[in-house]
Amino acid sequence: MLGTFGDFGSFSFYFSHHITSGEGGMITCKTEEDYNLLRCLRAHGWTRHLTNRQIVEELYPDIDSRFLFVNIGYNLRPLEVQGAMLSVQIDKLSQFNACRRDNLKRIREIISRNERFHRLMSLMEASPGVDPAWFGVGVLLHRPYAHQRLEFLKYLEENGIENRPIISGNFIRQPCIAAFCEREHPENYPGAEVIHKRGFFIGIHQIALDQTVIEKLVEIMLAFPFQPQHVILVTGSHRMLGKYIQNIVLKQTLEEETVSSDLSLTENKIKTKNSEWIFLTQDDGDLRQIEDVTNIFKRFQPTRILHCAAYIASNEDMCNKPVDFWLDNVKLNNNILQIAFEFQLWSGPIKVISILSTNIFLENTQHLKAESYIFAQKSLQQLIRWYRQQHNCSFISILSDNVFGVYEDINNDTDQFVNTLIMKIINQQENDPSTSVVLTNTCTTECEILFAHDYAKIIIWAMENYDEDETLLVSGQTISILELVQLICQHANFVGGFTFDNNAEYNRLLYDTNSIARLNPPIQMTSLSTGIQHTVEWYRNKKCKESII
C-alpha cells in the first residue's frame, strides 16, 4: 500500500528491514515539483541534481552555479555501494515477503491454540483486504498486564528473543514533539497510548523459520509469570454502596502487610500491589455525556467497572419529571456499556458489573413515584443481556432488595425503606419519645433486609467469580416488618410504641436466590441487629453534627 496513495511514501532500508542498504531509505512522490524539492533537501539544498537546474540558476546570476543553495537541506545522498546492495535484493524481495508472511502465519496458528495467549495478549491484525509482508509480530498485552511490559521484554531478551517498541509508541510523548505541542495530551490518543504502554515488536525473518524455532518462541512467550493488575472504576462512589466498597478496599489494603511499599492512597484512588481502584466523582465528568465517559476511559483505561451510579432525586421530582429522569438514566447506563464495549478493541476484555433495583420485577409500577427510574433499570438489564448475546461481552448485573446502611442522605423523599424507618423512629424518640410513631404506607408482612456492607462485599466477590447471563439475585435476612420495627426501636432506645397504616400493601417481592446460594460466596454476613445498630448510631451522630453546625 505504501506509495500508492497520498503525496509521499517513505521507505526505510535499515539493515533489519524488508530490504537493506545498510542505512538510508527512499521517498516516492507524485509530481516533478515535489521530486526536485526532495532531491534538493537530500543534498544540502543544492541545485546540482534538479531537473530544472538551468531555470533556477538563471534566477541567481551573481552566485556561482556550481554552489547554488536554494533551500535548507541535509547530506543524505546514498553511495553507489548501497545502490548495488539494493539492486541485488530487489530480485529477492518477492521471496523475502513470502517467507515473512508464512512465518507470521505459522506463529499465529501455534500461539492462537493456547488459551493462555488469549487471556494475556493479542496480535495485531491487518485491515480487511490488505496482505502486508510483516516486518515484525506486533503484540499488545492486555491492560491488566501493562505494568509487567518492561519486565517481560527483559525476560524475552534474556531468552534470546530480541524485541523493539512499535515504532515510536505515542509520538506525543516524544520530547521532540512535546516541545512543540504543549497543549496536546497523550491520553487523547488512546490507540497510540495502548501501543506505547502495552505494545512491542518481535522481528519476522525473511528466511523460512524451522517449526521447532516457532514452537520454542511461543513456549517462551507464554511461560512468563504474568500477574494481573486490574484498574477498577467505581461509579456512584459518593453514595451508600460506593462508600462501603471504598471502605472495604481500603481496609483490605491496610491489612496486607506485603503491599506497604506499593500502597498509594488519595481521596478517590487506592493503588495496591495487584489493583488500582478509581472512585469516580462529579469532577471526573458527567456520565450522561458520552464525551465525558469517553475521556474517563481514555484517562484510566479500566479493566473492571462497578457501575453503582444512578440519576435520582426526591420522589416528588422524579414523579413530576418522568421523561427527564428516564432519559438521564438511560443515557448514563448506555454510555457506560457502549464505551466499555468500544474500548475492548484495544484494551482487551472489560468487565462491567451493574447494580439494579428489585423494583424491576414488579408487575404494577404505576403507583410508584420512581416509575421512570424503574423502567430505565429494566432497560439496563435487557441491554446487558443483548451485549452478552451479540458481542459476548462480560457484562453482568446484580440486585438486592431493601439494602440499608450509612453514608446515605436519609429523608422521607427517598426510597430507602429501612433507612427511612430508622429516621422516623429516631426523630420521634428525640422530639416526642412518649408518643407512638405512626408508620404510614407500611404493612406488617415479611421482607428481605440486607446490610449494605455485606452487599458491597458480595459485589466485589462477584467481580471475579460471577459471569452468567442471568442477573445475580442477592438476598438478606427474611424478617417481618413488625419485627424489623421492634429491632430498630430497641437500638434507638425508643419506648413510645408504634402503629401501622394497615391499609398499605407491601409491593416488594421475595424472589428466588438459588443462584447466590449455589455459588456460596465465602462471605461472613453481618447480623441484622449489628447492621441496624451501626446505622442508628451513624444517623444519630450525623444529626448531632448537623445541629452543632
Automatic annotation (TrEMBL):
InterPro entries: DegT/StrS_aminotransferase, Epimerase_deHydtase, NAD(P)-bd_dom_sf, PyrdxlP-dep_Trfase, PyrdxlP-dep_Trfase_major, PyrdxlP-dep_Trfase_small. Gene3D superfamilies: Aspartate Aminotransferase, domain 1, NAD(P)-binding Rossmann-like Domain, Type I PLP-dependent aspartate aminotransferase-like (Major domain), UDP-galactose 4-epimerase, domain 1. One of its GO terms (molecular function) is GDP-L-fucose synthase activity. This is NAD-dependent epimerase/dehydratase domain-containing protein. It comes from Adineta steineri. It holds the Pfam family DegT_DnrJ_EryC1. Residues 232-470 form the NAD-dependent epimerase/dehydratase domain.
